[in-house]
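Hey L., structure's done. Input below.
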Amino acid sequence: MKNKYFLSALLLSALLGNAQETELKTDSLKEVVVTSSRIDLPFKENSRTIQIVTAEDIKKLGVTNVADALQQVAGIDVRRQGVNGMQADLYIRGGSFDQTLLLIDGIKVDDAQTGHHTLNLALPIDVIERIEVIKGPAARVFGQNAFTGAVNIVTKDVEDNSLIAKVQGGSFGQFIAEATGAVSLKESSHIVHFSKNFSEGYRYNTDFDNTNYVLKSQFNKNKLPIELLTSYSERKFGANGFYGFTSYIDQYEETQASLVGLSTVIKKGNFTWKPRIYWRRNQDLYLLIRNNPSAYRNLHITNKIAVELNGSHQSKIGITGFGVEFSKYYISSNRLGDNQREIASLFLEHRFQFFNNIIDVTPGISASYFSDFDNQIFPGLDFGVKISEKFRAYGNIGTSFRLPTYTNLYYVSPTTISNPNLETEEAFSQEVGFKYLSKNINVSLAAFNRDADNLIDYVRENASDAWQAQNIQHVNTKGYEANIEYKFLLNQLPQKIQLGYSFLDNDVKKSEANFSQYSINSIKHQFVGNYAMEWFKNFSNSIGYRYVERTSGVSYNVWDVSASYQLKALEFSVYANNIFNTEYVEAGMVPMPKGNILFGMKYLFK
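Output:
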């Protein structure tokens, strides 16, 4: 590991030594306004740890999906089972996949059945403007599911009429066909996307077939714009060893996830109002034996219907943010039964600024009513100090809360026993950090601590027993993260280096049981690096690197390479994953594929 750091530092020093300090004509990250339901702030003024993955970053990485793009963010652990993000779980700072909230344009697309479905609605990358990763407790901003953080996918706006057609093909019989059209009219604008993605699989029973539809429309855009967002994703995949014991090689799953949302923004004087209504549906079909549905079959259908009214008010004493939301969850399942849950939440926060805007303090609170658990209050506080135009120190404290999913409460299988008496998870978190932002270099460093109680764990006495859900009394998680992004010119061509490191220490109170799932496979050390370069005009390529050491002592290195060449309206690309054939596992005991390659061609018409 030390050699890896030394080589990375040596490479960086050499590049910096030869780099030209010419100012780059690129959009500054400082000007990005981080999406919020209430108080929207430029990235440079935010007093939280937030990382932005732009559409340009995703393009340079060469990846085909959100799960793979998030692999390059330090502090994020995306545990995949297979390729192309067909089944992937999202973890932030050592939490579980149930403790991370996914949003799309601010819409919370959580699923009450299980956090395994968090990324089912991760949009195709051609409709994504950026991905905002908000780390740390976010319950006072987003509510109960943002236990360790949140990820918000921001979709593109229509600027010009355009049509993008793309095809890719490569290892394991992979084939991807996509079409994305954008139309800007006098009173409305529309983005339409369709994609088909399938593969024979990289080993027995890992084939998949994925279909995506996305429509984003804006009506009445010159007066009171009304935005419609609809998305549908269907995934069919062989799940060899994905759930339970590795001997279950014939498992199979189909999911259908859909979203329909309507929203607008009303500005009147010093007030801004943001009403929203949306419906999120997920259907999950699971077969223990693919060709024998009668052997063991699960069918779960969940629906979430929600209405929100958020807003803000600008006054002499700062910005006040406020909001109210109501959501209702339904589940119909042959294993989990028919259940309903209502949640009503109130939000209030205010941003004070002192000493000519050098210091900012933002206290806030959210209060939630739950129909099937005790009511909760989530207080929190963000504070920041503007040391200079480029340098900012910040900190935050807050509480977090998570309800057990219906899988935690009611699911029983040959390998898992639920617990209807589970209590809610709770945590108190603290964080300090700083950011340095300039036109060429961005640096951030954060240290954090989380004291959690009643975390839900799965335990067993013997290796052959089924896992049983229970609350463990206390877990302390501490760690730190460092990130650097450097842009420069080399022979008048733009270059970009991104490096990130995270360290996590989970102190889990020893369970009375002999086996525990909570700390298995958690990341302890993580190093990510990417060098996006241009060697000559219209040709660019990227080298990506990931080092992971898990609490079990297992570690691995993965290298990826991508390249693209632009020839007028055509773009040719190649993406090579795991080029040194590393043998490694991210989730359970499912081996990830060795070296594989994907060739692509894209046509852009404007």
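The domain at 2-605 is CATH 2.40.170.20 (Maltoporin; Chain A). The first helix runs from residue 2 to 18.

-- N.
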